[in-house]
Amino acid sequence: MRKRFLHFRVDFYAILMSSAPSKILVVDDSRVARIAIKEIFKKNFPEIPIADVGSPSEAIELSKSENFRLASLDYNMPEMNGIELGEELRKIQPSMKIAILTANIQKTVFERSEGYGFYFFKKPIQEEIIRNLVALFHSP
User: Fold this and answer.
1) Residue 105: is its pLDDT beyond 80?
2) pTM for the full model?
3) Is residue 57 included in any domain, yes or no?
């Protein structure tokens, strides 16, 4: 079975001209990964608000009080994995888009992500992945 990874064609002008009142939530237990993701966003898409947390429990609490259009979740984290967290976040905010961003590219992880309607991106974190997340953020 051939693995499918999502690739988006991005109209950067449309992205820059659109206005989205909600934010992107980044959840990764690696502080270095969160910093890297935020820096790429800050450099290329400074108009998009980003919130980041280091644990699933923090993500759940924050999503109860703030509106997120998209969550980027690491798969391997303490407490629960990214797919389990994605399920919990969707209970709180059903329209939230979920992207699993992970170095764990096992077929079962990809298939589970796809089965829940989550988007799947493999690390390492690169500008192309961030552009794809931005496209998701702005997509209907």
Assistant:
1) no
2) 0.79
3) yes
